[in-house]
Fold each of these.
Amino acid sequence: MGGMTDSGERTDPGTTGERGLPGAGLVKGLAVTLKTMTQRSTTQQYPDVAPELPPRSRGVIALLEENCTVCMLCARECPDWCIYIDSHKEEVAVPGAARPRQRNVLDRFDIDFSLCMYCGICIEVCPFDALYWSPEFEYAEYDIKDLLHDKDHLGEWMATVPPPPAHDPHGEPAKEETAAARKAAVPASPAARPTTPGVRPEPDREGGAAAPGDTAGEGSAS
């Protein structure tokens, strides 16, 4: 924008100050081009060379069908409502039970990846580890309807799921490991100890029952 002089006349911005040299911008641009031309290219030759993805890449969601209990948590928590689940109940005869039990059988588990926004909420809320992230991302389709993957298609992606990372040796152990170690460290109670028929249990020597060879107190004193 132009300025104003002391007399109130408007000045042209092109007439004030020093003008740049003609072609200075072109020279600067060519300097950047020449600088990059002398550096080694870092272009990845995809698809001829597979890219090295980070270990926690979010490609496609894989389903481990045998772990699914049809709890519907993933479908209810999905913000895009792109998970569709159908199931039915079957009776399972349990030996020794008074009546047969019922279990849910998964009939349909579809994910519409044309609606999925890859937030990972369904994987986080699954209590039985039935959903996993796979780094595979090459599942583009010519028809948007083909982006609806059924449970068989989702099960095929399990072969591409990387193994979980190793535990940190200096990290805090899992709660399950701590509970199992605490339970194993507690000695069994006298009532839970195995006994041999015809042999009296050994006492705790603190006022318990007498030992098998200990006859004191059984009427020897008159």
Note: The helical segments are 24-37, 73-77, 121-125, 151-156, 175-185.
Amino acid sequence: RLKSVVHQTNCVCMFQTLPDSAISTYAASLKDKGALVPALYKVIRENYSDLLEPVCHQLFEFYRSGEPQLQRFTLQFLPELLWSLLSVSAARDPHTSGCIEALLLGIYNLEIVDKDGQSKVLSFTVPSLSKPSVYHEPSAIGSMALTEGALANHGLSRVVYSGPHLQRETFTAQNRFEVLTFLLLCYNAALSYMTSTSLQSLCQLSSRVCICGYPRQQMRRYKGISTRLTVTSEFLVQLITGIHYALCNGEVELGSKALDDVLYRAQLELFPEALLVGNAIKSSLHSAALKSNNKEGARSIQVEITPTSSRISRNAVTSLSIRGHRWKRHGEMHTPEKSNLRCSRKAVGDQLAETREEFSHTLYPKARRLSVFSL
């Protein structure tokens, strides 16, 4: 088995001898090497393997090449790399994770700058409740009164900015989860390209990080490290984002277990952001049928779209509603005197109409016939 791992690793190292024109072809051919990915997972999971350092170095060369397929090839191992780093850090044996730290810091430092080497500022648009998005339909929310404040904010989009991020040369207790959260953000941006093995690794990472050192670890009979790992709310939110995608793309069992474990940890830590996002996803899954057999087809996030219907709130105040309310009120407030006056006015109107018709027939019989014929 070790010879097979060495052989697959040597195939990866052939990338260094390729010309620039052949990089795209080489990147596309990696998918056909079925034994390569399991061999690399085996090397990463063995922290004391002699092949770990050359593999991490080669994965960084893949990412630094700028070829999107090679970058996604490296990102698929990110959940396993994160767990290796966190487990070694919890065991207080940093000497065995030096190459993994270098790889993760290298990816982070590459992603926080643009092509010119300037710090990037990422922007995210928060959906407006008045406009439909992939997560909601305005008609499903219910009627909302058109108050002055709602009209003032109608159609306005809120933009949230992230960055610029500082370059990091080493991991510390203060910046560890800042870097790891940003790396998970990069991973989630490429979720549609991740394999089933990578999604399974993400779910396993989420469960292990959240239950280690807590009573649930004994219930799950997980025999890994028993040290509690420090997490942040932002890190859990990024984990939930990936779990949501895994749930909708075939990993129902692992994804459901991972989501429960993350919510379990968020409740213990009292993280409102993680609880809000996690419970919202969990509630939406009860009313939606998960695509449990969608491991090979097109990947997507399943969202229930409600039919759009035009509804006007009872509390909405418009010029039309005011006019209709006024005439309705006047119609209800009638007296016998007003009713008699209304009947007499109707009779006079009918009589005038008959007189006008007879007069026009007498003076203009030909014109009247033409007009009837034209009709």
Note: Confidence is low (pLDDT under 50) at residues 308-313, 362-375.
Amino acid sequence: MQTEARVGVVVEGGGHRALSSGHAGGAGALDGGARSYSSHHPQQQQQQLQHQPQIGTVAHLISGGVAGAVSKTCTAPLARLTILFQVQGMHSDVATLRKASIWHEASRVVHEEGFRAFWRGNLVTIAHRLPYSSISFYAYERYKNFLQLVPGLDKHRDSVSADVCVRLFGGGLAGITAASMTYPLDLVRTRLAAQTNTMYYRGISHALYAICRDEGIRGLYKGLGATLLGVGPNIAISYSVYETLRSHWQVERPYDSPVLVSLACGSLSGVASSTVTFPLDLVRRRKQLEGAAGRACVYKSGIFGTLRHIIRTEGFRGLYRGIMPEYYKVVPGVGIVFMTYETLKSIMAGMSSVDD
């Protein structure tokens, strides 16, 4: 669940920064990321912390969920194109795939399925966003508190490296937890988005019923191994890149717009994490479609066997099939998430101050 995990947990990272800064002794990600610079820029650091929006947990959850839904809806056409490219190699002649292009595939979708088909599966994506954001937010806080109790780590509480380790492990574990608990919705979304002219699954409830009927309960968790293997490093890379860039930027240029800073740093973190973990995301998609709609299984082995099969039949480039629409999706998608999230936090913080 690469993109979903990245957006869900990295967005929550912004929430933890504001939340932690509101508690005495909190080890917030922003505090940890900028701590090494505070001795050189005490005034800028103080201004930065004073301008962080202070809102409660429920407001954070609402902000994260709405931000994810807005981002997914805006980038749904590119997300569907990514899935269509990723699964083409399963049942298609590889020689014909080299001729495919984003524009050609987009034109085919409009001509054969209609413009609304670009948003096929987006409803289940939005339905997946709220529980995923809630679980990842709650799990991150719990894991972070637990990791800070690890023997020996409390002695290095003021160390930047220790704080980074807590963020990385906490974010990775939170992503794995949220991905596992909401995985069936992710699988249904993939199968709905991968349908073209033949509509085997008629909606979310029908897809869940048909998968359980045809493949058993275990069918709802096809590809979970690739998801869990990739979600940890994906979130760790995205989370650390975002936090590092944002901390540097805000310390060096404290008066820049928080929205623009979030947009730039979020987009770069998305590109970095997608590049490293895209092959596992491709394996996940193909595993999710194994046996769908009664079709024959293509990959008889596990994750690494599937990777070898793809390289043997499609070449190394086959591991990055669909990477371009993924890039086009990640840059605006993650940027929209952070922009929407920071904007909603500011609005809710303003409403809270008015009520007080």
Note: The chain has one domain: 2-355.
Amino acid sequence: MRSQSSAEPGTAPSSDERRAAAGSHERVAPKPHERVAPKPHERVAPKPLGPDSLTWRYFGGWRGMIFGPWAGSMQNMHPGLGAGVEEHSDFFDERWERLYRSLYPIYGVVFDGPRAAETAAKVRGYHNTIKGVDKKGRRYHALDPETFYWAHATFFYSLVVSIEWFDGPLTLEDKHRLFDEHVQWYRLYGMPMHPVPESWEAFLEYWDHMCRNVLEDNKAARDVLDMWRIGRPPYLWWFPEPLWRIIRPPVIAGFLWLTIGLYDPPVRDLLGYRWSRPEATLHALIGRAIGLGGRLVPWRYRYHPRARAGWDRAFGRIPAAGLLETPARNLPPVDRRDSPMHYSPRVTRRNRPSVSP
């Protein structure tokens, strides 16, 4: 990968290039199993992120939806997480609804201000009962510290990758700042901190180790990438179903191609995909074009409603007491709404903000 100073104008660096640029400044980090001493961030009290953070600026945007298949498949390639999804999740029975409602608590851990820790505790609670033995005889639990942190790591790294794909290279200072904020964000879950790398440099080593040595090509990951029978997105409810069936193949093929381009080379190799230099160049140009196009959207409306509500509370546009919950159209099927695994708030059809007592 080329360094930031040598990146071509208008293109975002590849994953290999990002690691090489970071590596020119970074020391070799210890392997995950070699870390023994407590890290400084293990002794810091949890504190929610606020509007002064870089994470607030970049996280929670609609453009990040493009990274959905990448994030979902990367998470599910973790053996423990993939087994939990395969054996406990109904995601593929209500794909759009599950995705759209899940974004509310996920974004809430960042944007809910003083109530972010409460949101994080609820998210953690949804995973309490997800455990078992996988097909290879390995025990798994969604709250295993290594497994739970991997899911968080994919959200954090997708943020870094998306910024560089849409907007161009980040400075090393901003990468360190985003890393520190992701640690602060993760502490809200109340999970053990020992899986968390001690620095941005160590995180890159951790990520590479996971991609090369831990992730697996499994059914849960392949199911995420199997979008060929997916229905119309909710925002295209007005689009005729017969026409959607006609345009779906090229649309899905395009999304799959974009996803393949976002993978690190070891992950592409694991999944059996090939990637050429011309494809990489085109992929980078598309990312920058999307980023430039997104600037035409009014600033507040670039954000998901839960994130936008966080900004609105921070600047006094709405009362501090309320949290915006998912609309009723995204709720789980009626027979699953009492399941401890599901986020299923009591909302009206008009999606009024909820106010806790």
Note: DSSP finds 14 helices and four strands in the chain.
